[in-house]
């Protein structure tokens, strides 16, 4: 089946689109990538999306205009990726605005904006969406969902392998080996902490909005990280928690950046961006180091995906701090660095049609696995 996957992450850079074909065993599908494309959000729309997730007050009309604009950009991205209309099904994540993990007796919830019926009508094709809701209803975090699909898409090697996504939030997938006693282990995955989000907010702050992110890591490269403050930040409760765990801009957003700045008496702009870049790498290294305390084996390789792959300063910090791992881009597996999640949601949509479970209790903490997503057909 030919499926179009659409994804916009917490960075709210834009919409990634993938057209892929799936067949065979859903657990180990045969798949081929037909096309992929990326469509940035218009600057004003991106600012509105980020503001919506940072406690700005919107009127009912503004919320309606926002979700409609998001849907229209998703349609434009889909049309750019699949101009001939080859797709038989669409899997669309929508735009996350707010994510609340389950905590202290409060159930989890997650808000992704999308007018799925409108998208289905524009595409003239069924759309599967709202993938997180079923897992949340089963007591899970509803995130991350991609690790389960990583195993199906990338397969296993002779040792544990890790996949790191550097979006707004950094998250890890651990895939067991294909031989030895660990071959019966479950695929694991969780959110590590900030990826690009704090770096982006800090760049916007020091440039008064002239820059939205650290292009090619040039600002960070001119500075030096403050290791003392990094050691302090790594002692925060979130980084001591064992999985399952999930997070987002709600925790690592503008307010969090301001709190961190208040802890630093004096620092240059370059050293600030360098410190935040090193922080994103350090939280990943800490999670990998913590595997020993969970009686797990460190992976032999780390495949890196997401927009953060385009930041050489961030990649350099990851290589330096994640010692003993072979670090490489997922592009060596034939997937563009920003296409992995769109491909994963295409696969989730295909799994929905096949009634194949899309979540993992070992990853999200849900009481059981289940079929994810809701399907909307064009009228």
How are the secondary structure elements laid out?
Elements (H helix, E strand, L loop, with lengths): L1 E7 L5 E10 L6 E11 L2 H10 L7 H22 L7 E12 L8 E5 L2 H8 L3 E3 L3 H5 L8 H9 L6 E6 L2 E7 L12 E7 L2 H10 L11 H4 L5 H7 L20 H9 L6 H21 L11 E5 L6 H10 L4 E4 L10 H15 L6 H4 L9 E3 L3
Parallel strand pairs: 1-4, 4-6, 7-10, 10-11
Antiparallel strand pairs: 1-2, 2-3, 4-5, 6-12, 7-8, 8-9
Task: Write up what this structure looks like.
It is a single chain. With 379 residues, this protein is of the alpha/beta class. The chain folds into two domains: 2-143 and 338-376, 2-Layer Sandwich (Nucleotidyltransferase, domain 5); 146-333, Nucleotidyltransferase, domain 5 (2-Layer Sandwich). It has helices spanning 43-52, 60-81, 116-123, 133-137, 146-154, 197-206, 218-221, 227-233, 254-262, 269-289, 312-321, 340-354, 361-364, and strands at 2-8, 14-23, 30-40, 89-100, 109-113, 127-129, 161-166, 169-175, 188-194, 301-305, 326-329, 374-376. The model has no long low-confidence stretch (mean pLDDT 94).
């Amino acid at each position: 089946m030919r499926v179009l996957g659409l994804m916009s992450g917490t960075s709210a850079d834009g919409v990634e689109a993938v057209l892929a074909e799936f067949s065979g065993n859903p657990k180990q599908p045969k798949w081929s990538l037909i096309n992929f494309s990326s469509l940035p959000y218009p600057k004003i729309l991106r600012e509105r999306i980020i503001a919506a997730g940072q406690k700005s007050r919107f009127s009912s009309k503004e919320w309606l205009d926002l979700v409609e604009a998001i849907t229209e950009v998703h349609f434009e991205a889909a049309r750019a990726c699949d101009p001939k209309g080859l797709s038989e099904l669409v899997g669309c994540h929508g735009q996350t605005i707010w994510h609340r993990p389950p905590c202290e007796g409060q159930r989890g919830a997650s808000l992704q904006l999308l007018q799925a019926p409108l998208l289905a009508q524009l595409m003239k094709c069924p759309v599967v969406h709202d993938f997180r809701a079923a897992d949340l209803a089963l007591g899970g975090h509803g995130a991350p969902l991609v690790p389960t699909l990583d195993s199906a898409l990338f397969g296993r090697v002779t040792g544990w392998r890790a996949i790191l996504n550097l979006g707004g939030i950094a998250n890890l997938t651990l895939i067991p080996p294909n031989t030895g006693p660990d071959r019966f282990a479950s695929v694991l995955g969780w959110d590590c902490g900030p990826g690009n989000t704090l770096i982006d907010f800090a760049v916007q702050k020091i440039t008064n909005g002239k820059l939205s992110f650290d292009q090619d890591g040039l600002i960070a490269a001119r500075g030096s990280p403050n290791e003392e403050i990094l050691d302090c930040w790594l002692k925060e409760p979130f980084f001591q928690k064992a999985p399952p765990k999930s997070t987002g801009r709600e925790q690592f957003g503008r307010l969090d950046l301001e709190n961190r700045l208040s802890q630093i008496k004096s620092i240059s702009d370059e050293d600030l961006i360098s410190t935040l870049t090193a922080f994103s790498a350090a939280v990943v290294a800490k999670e990998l180091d913590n595997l020993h305390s969970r009686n797990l084996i460190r992976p032999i390789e780390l495949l890196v995906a997401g927009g953060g792959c385009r930041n050489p300063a961030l990649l350099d910090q990851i290589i330096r701090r994640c010692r003993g791992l072979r670090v490489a881009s997922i592009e060596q597996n034939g997937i563009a660095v920003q296409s992995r999640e769109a491909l994963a949601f295409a696969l989730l949509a295909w799994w929905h049609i096949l009634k194949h479970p899309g979540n993992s209790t070992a990853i999200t903490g849900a009481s059981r696995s289940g079929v994810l997503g809701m399907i909307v057909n064009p009228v």
